[in-house]
Amino acid sequence: MKRYGTPVAIGLILFINVWVIAGVVYNRSGEPEARITLTERELPKAWQERENTGLFLRLHWQMPGFQKPGHYNPEPGWFTRDKLVDLGFRVEMPANDTKAYDYYRHQLPRDAFIVLEMEGPTWNFWRKGAVDYYASLKSDLEKETDESKIQSLNRQIESLKRSMVTQSRLFAVDAGRSPSQLRERYPDRSRHLIVRGIVRIRKSVFPSGERGKNGKNEAVINGYIQKILIDQLHVPYLFRDRFFQFVSKPRYWSPARSRRAGKKNEMGPRYAVTLSYGKRYEPWITEITELK
User: Fold this and answer.
1) Cα separation, 261 vs 251, whole angstroms
2) Domain range for 276
3) Where are its TM segments located (predicted)?
């Protein structure tokens, strides 16, 4: 029996490799399902171990809506009860039931296709919220006389300014079990990606005094995206040297640091990445260019 162990193991490894390669070839055959250009805002360099010689970019996305720092908004948005039912979840127990938290927490996650929208209405809504909040902070700063509060407001303003030029413009706007139906609703293949993900259901509670009625907490049932299945993308060897050349340009995260370095305050993205998504809704990098 031992005589056959090594050949069987080698054969199994070869079979798995052939299977993986065949999947990649099939995914990339024909016209891409979608092709989109993102920047460092949506695809920053992923953290990696020192021993790992691979180079990966991490897909950075958001849920719709602008949230002030320190504020949590559990409103369901598009992830409503009807959407949860469409995805196969049970929603019959009222949110204010004492057993609701455990009931919904113990429901198994569901596979789903997620729609990611690039620089669309959801991004415009986020940007408007950020601009309005920036104006509010500036107004508070002009009225404030306490030195410690002035410093705090200045820090918030700097953080918000940084977010407005570094935050991802890619937003999750829908989910479903049929990618073809989602594509019918979102036909722009250069703005809307359809990706595989995992979704869950939960009970959330509005913080007291923020939105609750009569100062009481308000419970809601909503869904959330637990994970986008492929959220790290390998940078092909062809683009490695070019990529490192682009990211060697320093970024200065505050006016003070840029002044000390004698440089202009540069916080914007340094590169753009063209992605293609194939028949299996799996992405690959087709181009990386420098942004100036």
Assistant:
1) 11
2) 27-59+233-291
3) 6-26
